[in-house]
Every structure is written in C-alpha cells, then in structure tokens.
Amino acid sequence: MTDHPIVDPTGHTPAPAPGPRPGLGIFDKELLDRCISCGFCLPACPTYALTGEETSSPRGRITLMRALEAGDLGPDDPTLAEESSFCLGCRACETVCPAGVEYGQLLEQWRDHQWSGPNRPWIARALMALVSRPGLLRLQGLVRRHARGTAKAPVQPVTATTGPDPAETPADDFAGQQEAGPQVSLMLGCVERGLYPGVSRAAQQLCPEITVPTRQGCCGALHAHNGDSETGAELARTLGEQLPGTILTTAGGCAAHLAHHLGRDRVRELSEYLDTKGHQPVGQVTVNGRRARAALQDSCHLRNGLGVTRPPRELIAAVADYVELPSAGKCCGAAGTYAMLRPEDSKKVLEPKLDEAEEADVDYVVTVNPGCLRQVQQGLRRRRSRAKAIHLAEFLALAARSAPDVPPCGDPAQR
Amino acid sequence: MPTGTDLARDLAAIVGDGHVRVDDGALAAYARDATPLFTARPQAVVLPAGTEEVAAVLRYATARGIPVVPRGAGSNLCAGTVPLEGGIVLVLTRLDKLLEISSEELLARAQTGVTTAALADAAAAKGLLYAPDPGSRTVSTIGGNVATCAGGLRGLKYGVTRNYVLGLEAVLPTGEIIRTGGRLWKDVAGYDLTRLLTGSEGTLAVITEATVALLPAPADTGTGVAYFDSLADASRAVAAVIAAGIVPATLEFLDRKCITAVEEYAGLGLRGDAGALLIFGDDGSPATVSGNLARIQEVCAETGALEVTLAENVARADALLAARRCSLPALSRLGSLTILEDATVPRHRMAEMVDRIDEIADRYDLRIATFGHAGDGNLHPTCVLDPDDADGAGRAHKAFAEIFAAAIALDGTITGEHGVGAAKLPYLTDRLGEDQMALLRRIKRAFDPAGILNPGKLGS
Ligand SMILES: Cc1cc2nc3c(=O)[nH]c(=O)nc-3n(C[C@H](O)[C@H](O)[C@H](O)COP(=O)(O)OP(=O)(O)OC[C@H]3O[C@@H](n4cnc5c(N)ncnc54)[C@H](O)[C@@H]3O)c2cc1C
Ligand code: SF4
Ligand code: SF4
Q1: N or C: which end of chain B has fewer CB within 10 A?
Q2: Would you say residue A174 has pLDDT above 50?
Q3: Which residue from B148, B145, B160 is spatially nearest to B210, judged by alpha carbons?
C-alpha cells in the first residue's frame, strides 16, 4: 500500500485537524458543533426557497455562525447582519434535521450578539419596551375594553388568583372574585390583549374552569427572538410565578417560549388543552346556510417547537369542513416582529399561501397565534378575498353560538 | 484573474445583479459542502437562470482561466464542490423546472436543479417510479445525482442513477451546448457520452438538463428485519438470499455500534443484544412481495438468525427504513466530527471487510461504526471523533487510507456511490492504475482544454 500523506497529489490539504479551538463564546459550543452540514434542512427553509442561496439556508447560516464564532467573519459583517434578520426563526429546519440541531437556540444566541444595543432594529426595541412595562400593558387593557372581538358573548368574572390589584382591576375585563378553581391559568398575551381581546374571551367561554389572573406580564418570547434572550428568560420565569398551575395560552409562540423556560409540563396551548380534556366542540360554523370550509395555518412554534399539529385540525373538523392547504405547516411570514421588520420578504412568504386559500375556496383560514392571525387577515384583506382569517378560539366560540340550546362548553352543569 | 470587483461586474453582466455574490459571508458559506475537514473559499458565487447563462459564464471563465466549480445542493460527502483553487462556484439551484413527465414514454425531463424527491414525487403522482433513491433525496439535485452517479436504498434490485439516464443537455467549459442521448432506450450512435458525463463529478461539463427513465410504480411493498449474532452471520444470509434466486429491492445492514446508536437516538425498538441486523424489503405485485419476503425469512432463519420479523404495517416498515436512514445522524451524536466513508467489496467478502475495518479502528484507537447496502457490498464505515481530539483527524485519515487499501485488496473499490471528489483523489491511482489515470487526464483535456472545470478533482 502506498503511504498517503494528508496532502493530496494536487497539493490540496484538508482543513487542519480541528483540535480544541477557543471560540469567541457567542454560541454554546455543543449546540453549534452538532450540525454535520448534511443539508437536509435546505428544503424545509422558506427563505432558502425564496433565494436558493446557501447563505439564506439553515446550514449556510450555521456556517456563518461558525465563521463568526471563529473570528473568520467580523461582527460588523453585512452578510451576518442581513442573514440574522432575514431568517424567520420559524424552526422548520429543526423538524427535519437528522442530527437534532436546536437551531432556534442558536438563532437566539446569534441575535443576542448581533442585535445587542443600538444594532437592534428600532421597531423591535420599541415593542420590547412596550410589552415589558406592566403599566403599558395595563394601558393596553384599557384599549382592549373598547376593542371589538368577533366573540361577543358576555365575559365571565373569574378568580384573580393573585388578588385584585386596585390599580389594574378596573382596567381588566377579567377582574372579579370567585372561589378558587382548578389550577389552569389563562395567559392573556401582550400583543393579543391589545389587538385581539376577543380571543381570550372566547378561550374563557370554551374553558370556564380556567382562571385569569389579572396581574400578568409578557412571556418574553419577543425579547428572546429579538436579541435579548436574558430578559426573555427572566420574563418567562416571572410570568411562571404570576400564573399558578398549568399555563394555558392562545399563542403558539408564547407556548413554545414558556415551555422552554418553565418546562413542557406547565404549558398548554389551547387546542392541546381542549384535546387532553376531551372537549367536544358543539355547533357548527355555517356560511350562507351551508357548513363552512375551513383550513388551518399552523403556528410555526407550536408545530416545530412543541409538535402540536393534530388537535387544532380535529377541533376545526368537528365544527366545519376541514381543508388542508398544502403549505399549512409552512411559515406565514408573520414570525413575531418579522412582518414589521421585513414587510416585503414577509409578503413574499405569505403570498403562495393566500393563492392556495383562494384556490381551495375556503371560507376561513383558522390560526392558533395572534401574529399569524394578523398576518393572514391583512393578506386576505389586501386581496379583497372572500375568505376570512380567524383565531381557533373564536372559531369554536362562533360554532358554539350556532347551537343556542347547548352551552359552548358542552356541559350544562358548568354554566 | 480579474479582481473581486471586476469579477463581480463581469458576472453580473451575464446573470444580472442579484445573482452574483462576492461578499465574505457568501464566500464562507460556499467554502464547504457536506464533507468534514475540507474548506476553501471561492472568489465569487454565481447563480445562473438557464443554459445560455451557464454557457456565457463558462466562456468567460475559460477565456480568463478562472476555475469553475458546479454545485447542486452541496450534499456530497467527498468534497466534490469545495473550490480548492478558488474561482467561481456555479450554483445550479435556479435551474429548477420540472419540464415533463411522460406516462407514454415512461420518462421525465428536468432541469438539473430539481431535487430528486421533487422529481420522484411528481412521477409517483402519475403512478410512476423514479428508481434511484439516495438517502439524501429530499435535498440532493438531479444534476448532483447524475454527476456523482448516486446510488441508494433500492440499489440492489434497481441499480444506480446511471441505469436511468437517457439523455443530457450539458455545457462544455468552452461554452458549446451539447445534447447527448435523448429519449430512446435503444440508441448506439457514437461514443456513449451520456454515460461518460454520468459520474464525471463536474469535471467535464456542466449538466443543465436530464432525461431519465421511469418505471411503472410497483403495486405493493413490504419490509422486514433479521437479527444476527455477528455481521459474518448476516453476510452469509445475504449470500444465501441471492443464491436462492431472490434479488430484493432492499438489503441494508447495521453493525452493533450502529444499532446501539440508532436505538439511543430514535428508540425504534431494535434488539440491543444483536451483533448485526439486516433490513430487507421488496416491491412488486402483492403475491411476489409476500412470497419473496417469506422466502427471505426462511433463508435468514436457516442461516442462524436470532430473530426474523416482518413489519406488520407501513408505519413499522417506515420505522425500520428510518433506522437505516438515521444511522449517520445517530452516530453523529456520539461526536460532532463524523467522517462517513464509502468502500465497496464483492458481496461475499463483506464480513472479511468489516473485520478488517474493526481491526484498523482498534489499532488507531478510533470509533468506527459500519452500516450500508449489504446487497451491493457497499459499506459506509463511519468514524466519529471528538473535535477536541487534537490528532484524531490525522489518525482517521491514516485509518481510512488503510481501509481503502483493504477494499482494493479484496477486489473492491474506494467508492461505491459517493464519488471521488477531492477527498479520495489520492487513492484513485491505487484503484485504477497509472495508465487509466493518464487516459482520464486526456479525456479531461479533450473536454476542458483550459482545465478550469472543478480542478483538483477527477482528471487532475
Ligand atoms: C445524509 C446523507 C445521505 C446520503 N445518501 C446517499 C446515498 O444513499 N447514495 C448516494 O449516492 N449518495 C448519498 N449522499 C451523497 C450526496 O447526497 C449525493 O452525492 C448527491 O448526488 C449529491 O447531490 P447534490 O445536488 O448535493 O450535488 P453537489 O454535492 O452539489 O455536487 C456533487 C458533485 O456533482 C457536481 N455537480 C453537481 N451538479 C452538477 C451539474 N449540474 N453539472 C455538473 N456537475 C454537477 C459537483 O461539482 C460535485 O462534484 C448522501 C449525503 C448525505 C449528506
Ligand atoms: S439538517 Fe441539521 S445537521 Fe444537517 S445541515 Fe441542517 S442543521 Fe446541520
Ligand atoms: S428558522 Fe426558518 S427561516 Fe430560519 S433557517 Fe430555519 S427554516 Fe429557515
């Protein structure tokens, strides 16, 4: 046998044996090392689908992260800045990665570094400031009283587990006293309570046993995804203390973030919760006298982060004709603050989905996350589409209202 | 060679502004593929939209002596797309149109950036089968498959990509566009350039369109698993299966180290006490499938299998195939530097080869697990290293040199399906001999007089 040196005949040498190479410590080494660069994640990535370029693929982004960690690319490198922001953070890459790379974690660490201080987009900064200030959240509560939800059923008074706070009680729809219920607390969600107050009302109608503590802050997902994972973790822990028992959320993004910090067992997204308690939706949603055709738009973090896909589909199918859109599992482009930070790219990601909805001639696109709701709603409006976007909670409540003799929770004793 | 900005300007004049990248980030991202340990940055990355643009880029590069490395999805494991001498990485992902699927002629025609899975799924939707199925099918491109002559899990019965390529459209480095072969099963006019380009690893021409043969989709499939005390026993079973006149679609094996790793990773319920397992599967009419699987079951039992079971349903069958497909990632969890190799020996010498691999691994103090396509004698010895092991890569390199030599000594070869690339070029002479190597270089020169296409690979 010929003895082959590491250098091949053409004089090309494989990269030096790795050995311990101290990095800059921006990334958790274990996480970053796990990627074997196989490229299996490429077809799952919506931004790679837009450009076909390695840089905007998960594998390429991990290569960029490695170059940053090793000091091969400077922190001011424009491609690093561009790609850390172009990524939707949808985590579709995680579900297909054979090596189990936790891309979502890497992205948080990347943005912690890349988007620190003044480098953070101002819109993100403004939003983060808004939601992390309890006083401002309370102000949102005020706004909410006048906001219109689709579900117009009267709101139930429920337990204020943490005790009424005189300052905020009047501003909150859910204020009031009742004897202590089972330990399931509804999380209101900082964006949702402002934009879609009807969602938590509907959730409460569906699950009258839950409590809605009045004093509750933001879960911190917004911070974690925008370069401040430390505050994100802190807010999650605080919220965990504020909300006793199981935390019920109507937002996939919040659910995944909270589950990461508080443990999977403490967090339930609405559809998942209804599923485990064996909830049978009542009534049906009709359009012009016929059963409505409804499709689901998955929430990325619910699907890719927590693996919840079946329950929302089954719930919809119970009250309407369920239609599966081919891209249901793919990001809608809302992606937290993405739709505001990169509106053009966000639209490009959304458009094919709207085409599908129109082609399938659905009446409703149902979502399980307020950000996705807003995104799809605006998209459909822009097109003057016949289809409407609606949150799952409100959709089920809408169905329940069509069955006036049966209370929405399906159990007359509870009403 | 023009400097960075001139290069960018000239290339942009050909493919348009948005499709040339010369920024450090892009150059870093295109400096590697799925092969560990090889990186080299290009000077530019260009993404043409069609054949004419490919031709214009190549004419430009030939005139100036700029190296050009064609690239599909970059999922190859032999450093085939690492731009060793810099130059241009020519990315073909924008050539992504599936042009035609013909049920009458049993063929498909696609631009070469289409992924294998997209083509296979489109064929399946018409009740047709595109037989080659590399483990990387969801990501790899038809161009990459043709250029590496990819194999896969159905290789035993259906063979490799080469058997399905009917015709190609390709651009020579000097810019001429040629069409080899065509739509016919029978066509012997001239040298068989279709076959020459198949497996040419981006060193002779850039393939822009492929016409591939399809088959009617089989009505039924079935899968089973057999456990053995040792891989030697499993190999005897493989030989007995073939001797019994059965050529199943799938015969894959995992050694003990792989079984343990896969079980820890995916928890599929595999038997942990076995020394090896064989996953077998067949397709065809329901009667053929059940007949063949029953016969394989018998033969395995006769050759001393510890246990043989058939998958009762599709889900279980998928889980078994998943066991094979997830071998690499399962192993990669043991250490993040994972070097997967690809030696092939005659089927009846597989057990010998595995013993040699184990002995070499022990001697170099390396963890090498082996899995592969038992039916083809195609082994994937996979070395898992801790990246902090300072001289681990050096030891692995020496160990693999011995493994390739052992394969050749057993009448085998240094690669069964992944290609030679830069990673295995040093061993190619051992396999082909000096005279053939010289001929390879003359062929290369005929296609690529300026030597710009994928230098440092085949024909260099
Ligand atoms: C987890 C994993 C599993 C795999 N399983 C298998 C398997 O079962 N069987 C198998 O055979 N391989 C397998 N591979 C290897 C790899 O996926 C194949 O070699 C595949 O064919 C490469 O396709 P690609 O599009 O990624 O090509 P690339 O990696 O981009 O390129 C491969 C080679 O082809 C050349 N090339 C690419 N496109 C063109 C073109 N249009 N014209 C001319 N030259 C071109 C390149 O220059 C390069 O030399 C696997 C890889 C991984 C990571
Ligand atoms: S699939 Fe996972 S291991 Fe493979 S390249 Fe993507 S992130 Fe890396
Ligand atoms: S998170 Fe989504 S957009 Fe970002 S790399 Fe992964 S798949 Fe692509």
Answers
A1: N
A2: no
A3: B145
Nearest CA in chain B to A96: B138
**Ligand 1 atom nearest to CA at B80:** 49
Beta carbons within 8 Å of A57's beta carbon, 6+ residues apart:
A39, A41, A42, A45, A47, A48
E runs forming strands in A170-271: 184-186, 246-249, 267-269
Specify the pairing of strand B177-181 against strand B165-171: antiparallel
- For residue B25, give the nearest of A43, A64, A97 by CB distance: A64
Q: A19 to chain B: which residues are within 8 Å by CB?
A: 387-391
**B123 token code pair:** 């064929």
Q: How far is the CA of A42 from the centre of ligand 2 (A)?
A: 8
Interatomic CA distance for residues B276 and B281, integer angstroms: 17
Tell me the pLDDT band of A3, cut-offs 50, 70 and 90: very low
Average pLDDT value for chain B? 92
Q: Whats the size of chain B, residue-wise? A: 460
Task: Give the pLDDT of residue A167.
Answer: 35
Least confident range from A334-338, B137-141, B381-385: namely A334-338
ipTM confidence:
0.92
- Rounded to two decimals, the pTM is 0.89
If residue B106 lies in a helix (H) or strand (E), which one and from where to where? none
User: Considering Cα of A255, then A258, then A263, then A266, what sign does the dihedral take?
Assistant: negative
* CA nearest neighbour of B399 among A12, A36, A6, A7: A6
Instruction: From A30, A31, A41, A66, give the residue whose CB has the most ligand 2 atoms within 8 Å, as the site to mutate.
Output: A41
Q: Which residues contact B260 (CB under 8 A, 6 or more apart)?
A: B272
Contact in structure between A268 and A294 (CB atoms under 8 Å): no
Q: Are A68 and A61 in contact (CB under 8 A)?
A: no
In chain A, what's the furthest Cα-to-Cα distance?
Answer: 87
* Ligand 1: nearest atom to the Cα of B112: 41
What number is the average pLDDT over the span B231-245?
A: 89
Residue A152 has pLDDT above 90, yes or no: no
